[in-house]
Amino acid sequence: MDTDLGLWAIPIAIIGGAIRVSTPFLFVSLGEVLTERSGRINLGLEGTLVFGAMSGYAVAYLTGSPWAGVLAAALAGSVLGLVHGLICSLPRVNDIAIGIAMMLLGMGLAFFFGKPYIQPVAPDLPSINFGWWSDLPQVQAALRVNVLFLIGIAAAIFMWWMFRATRIGLLIRVVGDSTDAARAMGLRPALIRTLATAAGGAFAGIGGAYLSLFYPGSWNEGISSGQGLMAVALVIFARWNPIACFWAALLFGGAGALGPALQSAGFSEGYYLFYAAPYVLTLGVLIATSSPTRAMHGAPGELSITK
Amino acid sequence: MTVKSTNPQGALGVETVGMTMRFGGFTALDHVSVGVAPGSFHALLGENGAGKSTLVKCMMGFYHASEGQLMVGGHEVEVPDPRAAHALGLGMVYQHFTLVPSLTAAENLVISRGDTPQVIDWRAESENLRAFMAKMPFSVPLDQPVRALAAGEKQKLEILKQLYLGRKFLILDEPTSVLTLEEADEVLGHVRSLCEAGQISVLMITHKFREVTAYADEVSVLRRGKLVGAGKVADLSHADMAAMMMGDQAPAAPADRAGQSGAPVLSVSGARALDRSGLKDVTIDALNVREREIVGIAGISGNGQMEFMEILTGQRPVKAGSIVVNGTSYHATREEARINCVRYLPEEPLHNACAPKMSVTENIAFRSFDMNGSGTRFWLSNSEMRCRAAELVEAFKVKTASLDSQMASLSGGNVQRAVLARELTGEVDLLIISNPCFGLDFSAVAEIRARIMDARNKGAAVLLMSEDLDEILELADRVLVMSEGRIAYECRADEADVATIGHHMGGHA
User: Fold this and answer.
1) Three-state DSSP class for B464?
2) Which end of chain A, N or C, is less surrounded by CB atoms within 10 Å?
3) Which residue from A164, A293, A298 is facing B317, i.e. has the nearest CB?
């Protein structure tokens, strides 16, 4: 059987890479959408991601169950989110400054507690082989889809539905768009924002668990290459829409896989340039979709960097 | 005065007894007793700062009165917060909009209900909303985000919301200030018939005597925190009410019109731009405003006035056509506005003409901070800016805690005054204004109209867009009607016929 696919290897590798790389983007951006829709920005999700990766890996190693690890990562993430939310509920506190502090705190804590877990090997999260119909190992490898990716898709669809058709979803949008209107309705904006930030932190924690428990699949201090920060930009790109977050995460993942894919197909020069593809792509799409006459669609009214 | 408790249809009787509110040493409300009988339409008159807002805020639980009680349905009640007031059936339409801008009208209505289910069945809800709207005398587009609605439509939605929530006692805070005459009559007529049917009682804060006479049963008048008069509307004339409201100070009479109109200052021909929905065009085929002339543009809100204003202020790009000021092409740059002495007072001045978080001094200096005589300057002169701001704040009676207060901390009327102070000072060739008296009280309205007339008499060309037809008929030399994004009708003000204008405003030409 001839397994040399020639140039066909590139799109297959990109699809496989998109599915593998996009999951943490997806979870962190969903968490950020939830937080920003309530009117706060949590820049600390990078720290939450790394802390989630560490705690997920540690608990998976100690209990032998990767799912216990995911749960622990979600819990750890929600605690970090809760701390961010509570601090930001104090008067005259800037959520962006707190976010940066929380990012550094999360990473520092993860490195401190994570030292003993760099050596041991924790069990991996299971994945489902959607490539069984093909004889090609490349196709089989590309379509080995992790369960968390599927859960992420379900979560994106659920969140989209939640913002549209549930009481909680509408309340989050009310609070995110107009504090005055929320107060007039007798709501407590600070409480709702804090809870939304905590839930958003849980999502980011799960994204971290994916990093350490599936791809790349081990815990070390360089595990995140800024996915947590890029996910914040991705939310703006996706216009605060969870479904769009999914496509944006896939796009980022696929663009990120372009460089390695070209390299594996035998291009030896210039592929470094393609490592920058996600960023170039983001800039291009943002410019193409922006307009001076229309307001940015979907931006929550209470989001502000001057509070 | 005692008030019956309730009537069978559910309208609530509400009464304040000796309500007093002190903020530190300042008494905002001094033993005010106002009774609203079930099913009655009660008007609350008073100037800005007379204590009307304080009174209703005490009733709604935003403030806790220092003394006095609130009686609802004949029983003394405690209202610790607005939620408790809502539970008692009291509702309020605020002067500031409390709708959520990014939610659609339907979402705003459904979420404002206390008993919104955890999962919303939109098919059933839209059905209910449609049925509800069918019973109302006016409607608003339900599936558009509130952000895209004009001020008039938002106000209508606010009133609809209260009715939708089934409130039995409504406080309306100047509900018609953004409505046209026809709309106001429509809305108040409906509110009035709900009162007569015994479904609701209404307490309406207003400045318009016409509305009091036409719709209210009883009136209470506040001045400086004290109840200075009350009675049946049928027994009182406009002069009586004005006397109670103003005390002995006389309102400024509108300045006389003086001088003949001259050469055109502003000419717009074939200007076309996308409207706020991005689907239709707003087209101004031909419009001239001459010096020493006020051209009034009447129309129901949402018919392209906002877009036309944005074209003139340079906020909305023009697809075709030309705008000429003083014989030269005009693109609304700061430079061109300065050279041609073009001044603006746009709708919602806090957002369209101010930097809300900068100080009053800085906002007043926007036109002149970088000018040094006829040249420009690099270093700002703070003392000069402060001096000028102090002068203008004094001259235009802007009420502000200090010159360094944020613009956003001023009340709506005072923002309006501050912007007018900036725009009307110095030489004015062309003045473009939109709803200059929105939400202002009686004496302030007269004063601002006098200033506009004064600018005209000094030679300025004035383009006035207003949803208040009375204002246009009082001020304008020429009246234009805008409908569906076009100028639909034009006539001289002294030949204007209200019925014909109303006809064209409704788009039935």
Assistant:
1) strand
2) N
3) A293
The reply to whether A123 touches chain B by the CB within 8 Å rule is no
Q: Give the ranges where B93-247 is alpha helix by DSSP (H).
A: 105-112, 122-135, 151-164, 181-196, 209-215, 238-246
pLDDT of residue A295: 54
B2, B50 in Cβ contact below 8 A? no
Residues in chain B: 509
Does pLDDT of B249 surpass 80?
A: no
Question: Which residue, B61, B484, B508, is CA-closest to B281?
Answer: B484
- Which domains occur in chain A, in start order? 6-289 (1.10.3470)
Q: ipTM for the complex?
A: 0.84
CA distance B97 to chain A (A): 8
Outline which parts of chain B fall under CATH 3.40.50.300.
Answer: 14-99+167-246, 251-341+428-445+458-509
Average pLDDT, stretch B342-366? 90
The CATH fold assigned to B14-99+167-246 is Rossmann fold (3.40.50)
Would you place residue B254 in the very low, low, confident or very high pLDDT band (cuts 50, 70, 90)?
low
> According to the model, what pLDDT value does residue B370 have?
86
CATH label, B251-341+428-445+458-509, candidates 3.40.50.300, 3.40.50.970, 3.30.565.10, 1.10.150.130: 3.40.50.300
Q: Which residues pair with B290 in a beta bridge?
A: B264
* DSSP element (H, E) containing B26: strand B26-36
Check if the beta carbon of residue A50 is closer than 8 Å to that of residue A186: no
From the list A177, A186, A293, the residue facing B101 with the nearest CB is: A177
pLDDT (0 to 100) of residue B443: 72
Q: Determine whether B214 is exposed, middle or buried from the number of CB atoms within 10 Å of its CB (0-12, 13-18, 19+).
A: middle
- pLDDT tens-digit readout, A109-118: 999 999 999 8
